[in-house]
Design a protein that fits this description.
With 490 residues, the chain is an alpha/beta fold. Helices cover 33% and strands 12% of the residues. It is built from 13 helices and 14 strands. The radius of gyration is 23 Å and the shape is globular.
Amino acid sequence: MSGGGAPAGPGPALSARGARIAAGVPGLLDGGFALYVADPFDRERNPEGIVNLGTSENRLCFDLIEERLTRPDMDCLEPDLFQYPDTQGVRRNLQLTSLTLILCFSFREEIAKFLTDYARATKELRPEHITVMNGCCAVFATLSTVLCDPGDGYLIPAPHYGGINSKMWLYGGLQPVHVPLSSEVTNEESHPFQLTAEKLEAALQRAEKQGIRVRVLVLINPNNPLGDIYPAQLLKECLEFAHRHELHVIMDEIYMLSVYDDTTFTSVLSLDSLPDPERTHFMWGFSKDFGMSGIRVGVLYTRNHEVQKAVNQLAVFHSCPGPVQHVLTQFLKDRDWLDNVFFPTNKKRLKEAQNLLVDRLADIGIPVLKSSGGLYVWADFRKFLKSQTFEAELELWQKLLDKKLLISPGKAFYCYEPGWFRLVFSDSVDKIYLCIERLQQMLHTDDAKPVVNNASSTADSSCSPEEDSSGTPSNTPRDDASQIKNILVF
């Protein structure tokens, strides 16, 4: 060794922030997906691999997308697409290509037109209010950074998509404040897991007593994992609640066009007036409604100039490639294909797949929550638990993984009642049947038969989600855990 200086240590020292990030614990959804990636089912090459009905992806319409990608307007290799783009979304002028004369509007302009029409916006959306990023995860991460300070809380109904916690925590250092929803229907409610403004108020008051400053309300509509849709009146009540308490609202409508029955979906963009438009932020993406989760494009629409200015400073780290923006622009511009081919076919296939999974689950004694949107069902496995605890739920989940079946346990969504699982139906018929076959093999063996009256026991402290996916305590009071009732929900 030449030169002086102290010998090298075991590794580079991290900042306090870096150490916090490195210490984060992967969520259950991440862990399950990693196992699947290492051993994926393939009918020809790996028939004994893991069947994945745990990851929310729409695999039903790739044939339509593939055909549309072969058309001449998709074939564009203009030099400007390979240069630094506008971080908000590329803007291009009239161009002459070797194939055809194409008027290439900005990506943001096409998104604004698309959302104006398909979200039934009351006013034409303005492209300058749009920021495009590489996925909705990036939108969550940047909003958490610019709206809140480390240690602040965000209000979110539970169960909810568990990935939000890590996105809000890694960048912003935020903590979730859960609004617990129960399968038990009270006299004031019409269906299980119902959200009300009163539950929002109660959760906010608990957070204040704990010294948590809540800055944001996060709503997912259609809901993930429940699959239900917020009625317009409830949506308005939630927005009024946020306005009273000066909370920002992040409205995640990534499943906006994945509604497969006749239930009316109300986008926040379609409301005649917003109580606090400067604090209402809409997000959407191509992952679910277009079945393009690998494309990684998320959209933020906000009228708040200061919020957008701060977000755009971070968007440079989350920009979308120019060629991707060109391809998606062609999809959005082709209204004939969208209205007459893609969306009606997608809706039909989603409904058929949902019916198939629900019917087959019923055949083996597993009821599900009634749903209208999303790519999944929320299924009740409580009678198959050895005890009404999350330990028993995870034990059942592991046994299913041992049978090479990946579905998602309720704990991954911070559900307050053990025994609920999310199953994705937007996949091939043969995978749905194989899922049912493997479920039946595992659930109806001698060591996994239904436990009589097991679901009527009281949920104790072990029935509260203990930590979020980052390893951060979820500030969930023990008395929030609801009474477990032996009900069947169809």
